[in-house]
Amino acid sequence: MIFGATDGMSFTSELLAAAIRLGCGVRLLPDEALPVAPCVFFANHSSHLDFATIWAALPPAQRHRVRPVAGRDYWEKTPLRRWLAVRVFHAVLIERQKVTVATNPLAPMVAALDAGASLIVFPEGTRSADGKLQPFKSGLHHLARARPTTPLVPIFLDNLNRILPKGDFLPVPLVATLAVGAPLVFDAVEPKPDFLARAHHALAALQRP
Amino acid sequence: MNPDRATLIMVGGIVALLALSSLITAVLKSRQPTGTISPVIANLDARVRAWWVMVAIFSAALFTGGLGSIILFALTSFFALREFLTLTPTRPADHRALFWAFFVVVPLQYVLVAQQWYGLFAIFIPVYVFLFIPIRCALGADPQHFLERTAKIQWALMVCVYFVSHVPALLMLDIPGFHGANARLVLFLVLVAQLSDVLQYVWGKLCGRHKIAPVLSPSKTWEGFIGGTLSASAVGAGLWWATPFNPWQAGALSFIITLMGFFGGLVMSAIKRDRGVKDYGALIEGHGGVMDRIDSICFAAPVFFHLVRFFFT
């Protein structure tokens, strides 16, 4: 495991994070910008680099506990993807297609949060081809309802679809930007569509005009 | 190549100038009411600090001889191209063309500089890359804004790579009686262009009243332009002993450098205003991006290079 909380690895991971920040042109977020406790970061999704960019920009305390949530169907398709997802990114893999009680995608996410991890989720469900923000799937609402006190932090990523677009494997070193919004507070009586609209709006508001 | 006496004197002069700037900034800061600092002074402070870093890197490259300068300007081109193309809208069909631009065109252009292959250096980007970029974009099969997209990529490569590569290309000029001293030409060009920027800023802040192009660049004034270009040209003329030129030639070439530098700043500002940004980036504290710092050099370098090549080799 390259990404992780073990002390022996922290120097390597610091170095890797600095290299990713240099490569994508994003700055290290200051500690004050984020809650200290485990939280759910929700971001727009347009590139395979999205998780690595957020991971690298997080201050070390959050970086060491954060895990991406990713689709099992995609990330278990080849041995390379599986190695990247499980060993390198330490991802929480969830079922997207044949959801049953036994493969409930919520359970591993809640378990990770309870174990002290922060999560990165992409509520659009998949990568956007043109970089435009797509409608949210309802997963974010299920997660928020299951752990209503966990802060929900919106993160907007700009330009990553140009750096490494969907369907290509060669990155182009343009400058990405990363914007963090104020945490959302879950309200148990708010209807699901309203909550999802509010979350979508909070993320869209971080987009540069 | 060991640094000679003249190079050492010039670098020493720059360090003395920077020390003076740091001193003046410190005095200005101490005169501020306690606890507050005006944005202008804070920016000045950041700029002077960044100058120290830039001068350290540039001197180190200069003292390592040819290869150091070539690598430094190749990296400068890479980062400038990155800022330029980030601001320039392209489409997914251009992705591979952009990959070639960063990882093939930039290194190849500087390999040509290192090989001192003037013939290909002079036409590689204006001819072969000009042909290649639209071909690679066309293979993406997306006609929307096609001419605009390829023109923007070509423009970015001309300004950020082709023009900038003319600075280390000065090392390949064979000037009678000036063998092994071409690094001083690089220093002369960069020093005069940057000093002109600084002096235009200083004159503008001290007595700037009449704006030249308020829409494109609100900080450019006639007072700053005239004071800056003339005083930088005077300094350039005073550096004739470090160059293959006589004082008049050094002064005239310096004046052309400052003039082209001014127009370079103006053109690059027009692009920024069109894209609705103030700076090309945030890599250099107080200055903005790499492109904000080298816009004057981009436009001055090819003209200076060809004038020296035509009249002195």
Structure description:
The complex is a heterodimer of chains A (209) and B (313). Chain A is an alpha/beta fold. Helix content of chain A is 36%, strand content 13%. Chain A is built from nine helices and six strands. In chain A, strands 3-2-4-1-5-6 form a six-stranded mixed beta sheet, sandwiched between helices. Chain A starts with 9 loop residues before the first helix and ends in a 5-residue tail after the last helix. The N terminus of chain A is likely disordered. Chain B is an all-alpha fold. Chain B has a domain of 100 residues. Chain B is built from ten helices and no strands. The longest helix of chain B has 29 residues. The chains are: A alpha/beta (209), B mainly alpha (313).
Structural class call of chain B reads: mainly alpha
Beta strands of chain B, count: 0
Provide the helix percentage of chain A.
Answer: 25-40%
The overall average pLDDT of chain B, rounded, is 90
User: Can you tell me the residue ranges of chain A where pLDDT is under 50 for at least 5 consecutive residues?
Assistant: 1-8
Number of domains of chain A: 1
Query: What about the largest sheet of chain A?
Result: 6 strands, mixed
Percent range for helical residues of chain B? over 70%
Supply Rg of chain B.
Answer: 20 Å
DSSP summary: helix tally of chain A: 9
Query: Oligomeric status of the shown chains?
Result: heterodimer
Number of strands of chain A: 6
Secondary-structure element string of chain B: HHHHHHHHHH
Q: What is the string of helix and strand elements of chain A?
A: HEHHEHHEHEHEHEH
Low-confidence stretches of chain B: none
Summarize it.
By secondary structure, chain A is an alpha/beta fold. Chain A is built from 9 helices and 6 strands; from the N terminus they run αβααβααβαβαβαβα. In chain A, α1 (10-24) packs across α2.
